[in-house]
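Sequence in, structure out. Go.
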Amino acid sequence: MAPLNGWKDRLRLAASRLPGAAGAIAWTSRADISTLNFITIFAFGNAVLYHRLLFLFAADALDYSSLNGVLTLFTLFVLVVFLSSLFLAVIALVAQRLVKPLCMLLVCGNAVALYFAETYHVILDRTMMGNVFNTNLQEATDLFHPRLLVYVLVYAVLPCIVLSRLNVRTVRFYKRSIYLFVVLFLGLGWSFANAQTWLWIDKNASKLGGMIMPWSYVVNSARWYYGKYFMAMRKEILLPAAHFVDPGKAIVVLVIGESARAQNFSLYGYPRPTNPRLAEAGAVALPGATACSTYTTASIECLLSHVGSATSLMTLYEPLPSYLQRQGVNVIWRSNNWGEPRLKIDLYQRAEEIRKTCQGENCDYDELLLSHLDRYLRDATRDKTFVVLHQTGSHGPSYFRKYPPGFAAFKPTCDSVELQRCTHDGLVNAYDNSVLYTDHFLYRVIELLKTFQRPTVMLYVSDHGESLGEYGLYLHGTPYSIAPDFQKRVPFIVWMSDEFKRRRRIHDGAIGGGPRYSQDNVFHSVMGALGMRSEIYNKQLDIFSID
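Output:
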């Protein structure tokens, strides 16, 4: 037997004489593999392990009984392998030793992304990644489920252990260069040889791009952060001066809802009585109302802009609250949510601040936004007051946490954040209960406004709608071009005091007669309700302009 040259060899020999030594030696030994083989194995493993949704989507949409369908499906697989191989080959060309730790980091990201993609059927495009980065701690907590830990164990920890056992050998620069050339040649060669398959891939690019791991969340995160940085660098354009055609006192309250869809509001014909208090108060539901976007930040920017859905990333106009404050209106913003733009107003309060002085059993719900609001309204020193109440509303997936126990009128409810594991009836029951609570909240706003002997108005519009499992989709944030109406159609509800209707000579039934409304109406309707006029005021978009 050859002499043992080092302490490691001696230790291995001693261990081999112990019970179970063979398995221990196999575990402690590392497989030797070149960087190029490592990249190839990872690229194929990544395609197989993390793209079940992608290939199921393609299989459902393609006629894979035909040759073209099979080739398209295989082209999709080649595309996934090609992207991973190309990226890692470029990294290896610059720094080989980064390849292995980078791959371990990517599988960790893949595991978390896969959980949310498979649990909620979300598409990880740029807007969805914006939702991820804008999610606050409370919303992140609502999304947690122990099943996430299972995904992390199976799809992150175990693959990382396997990768850690591989001893990656460096290879010469010319071999890495040849490998990169071969990847490009094979990938592009397959694409050109099967060009007919790209018609379907190009048609569905917006969906497919949000399903390919890890590039869906890596690239779209970079795109979102670039857009955020670009937007932060924009200089705000101040709007032209305004004047008041009605100098009297007035209060206008804008309630921004969250994830409320018009299809579940009884004021819009839903058979369940989800809006009994609003119906009792004589509120008007504007028909056919649509949101500008399927996610909060874009929708709020739109409804607070005088250009509405024509808002451009290239231009940042002064938002409605800042504009009104600068024109002498008392402006209050109270938020139980997030996503507001930069504001310059009199009073901005978040839920955490309000909760410190809130008293009562409902201070953990949207009603905290009304705590001491009457005092602020009565202490206002200016004739005109504009209030924004930003709800948490019906934000999913934990709909069952958005209303007090007393509003659980529809049972049984889905009390889990894993919505696809709930029955559809249970999910809808929990969601409808959140709508019922919103009805109660809005009624309390109306009752508060009735205590003031002056013209008062409440406008309620949701930021976007919500999917409750229709077409296999949950929550919101689906790209607008392919989003279902459940995510785009929103409730737009108006209540006017008798004094307001008398001053404006508006009779019952005078508003809401148009065929369709949208968030574009909000800016100009608030101006109209406050009796304001300026160069940017659009009478056609003012719902209170009836002459």
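Check: Confidence is low (pLDDT under 50) at residues 1-5, 11-29. The chain has 22 helices and 15 strands.
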